[in-house]
Amino acid sequence: MQRFWIGNGINKNKQMVEHLQHYGVISSMKVAEVMETIDRALFVPDGASAYVDSPMAIGYNATISAPHMHATCLQLLEQNLQPGMHALDVGSGTGYLTACFAIMVGPQGRAVGVEHIPELVASSIKNIEKSTAAPLLKEGSLSVHAGDGRQGWPECAPYDAIHVGAAAPEIPQALLDQLKPGGRMVIPVGNMFQDLKVVDKNMDGSISIRSETSVRYVPLTSRDAQLRGY
Ligand code: SAH
């Protein structure tokens, strides 16, 4: 697994962001700002070393992605997370990226998380309530829902940005349908070997797909399969 640093001595969120800039993972000021604003420590299990560049177990056979993966996805989606835009976070887990999306699209935009483990939905809402995204949750531009994310979240479609935080065997059609022309989806695709795919819906509705990098995510699957351990 790729890892840019180990967390010894890194105990501050800002330093984590500076590392990501130093290693070239973050080049955008906006992405740096949002990752500074949303403190990762509020989203990892109590006592876990929040700023280590590593995924971490969050229960229910799920993980919070490593900081460099969160940063990579924010960078890839930056143009589609402008104020007023709509963003969907499938497999929202801890709620970390949903909170980042909400800050970027702002109060006139819409950030929606969909997660199929109800306990994670509940804990993600608690995490967000402690973060700087709390007012957006209260005012309703940010929401997290329990559901099968393979179906997307039609109520707030179409989306400028869709992020999928779990690896799909193939790109779900419902998510393609809910992507706006000009919209972008970032989704890990594969089983054992996975690629982070960047899926652009062109203005004429056609789809362009490229592979960004090899990744290792938990599967986008049914709740039963996940709780059985896949
Ligand atoms: N971006 C999240 C990633 C969590 S791991 C974070 O960094 O916190 C992937 C998440 O996808 C898990 O929480 C898992 O429960 C969820 N998941 C897997 N399959 C799903 C599905 N079909 N519908 C909704 N959520 C799903």
Automatic annotation (TrEMBL):
Pfam family, one: PCMT
Keyword ATP-binding: no
EC number, UniProt record: 2.1.1.77
InterPro entries in UniProt: PCMT (IPR000682), SAM-dependent_MTases_sf (IPR029063)
Classification via PROSITE patterns: PCMT
Reactions catalysed according to its record: [protein]-L-isoaspartate + S-adenosyl-L-methionine = [protein]-L-isoaspartate alpha-methyl ester + S-adenosyl-L-homocysteine
CDD domains assigned: AdoMet_MTases
A cellular component annotation (GO) from this entry: cytoplasm
Keywords: Methyltransferase, S-adenosyl-L-methionine, Transferase
Domain of life: Eukaryota
A GO MF term: protein-L-isoaspartate (D-aspartate) O-methyltransferase activity
SUPFAM superfamilies: S-adenosyl-L-methionine-dependent methyltransferases
GO terms under biological process: methylation; protein repair
PANTHER family, A to Z: PROTEIN-L-ISOASPARTATE O-METHYLTRANSFERASE, PROTEIN-L-ISOASPARTATE O-METHYLTRANSFERASE 1
Family: Belongs to the methyltransferase superfamily. L-isoaspartyl/D-aspartyl protein methyltransferase family.
Protein name: Protein-L-isoaspartate O-methyltransferase
Native source species: Gossypium tomentosum (Hawaiian cotton)
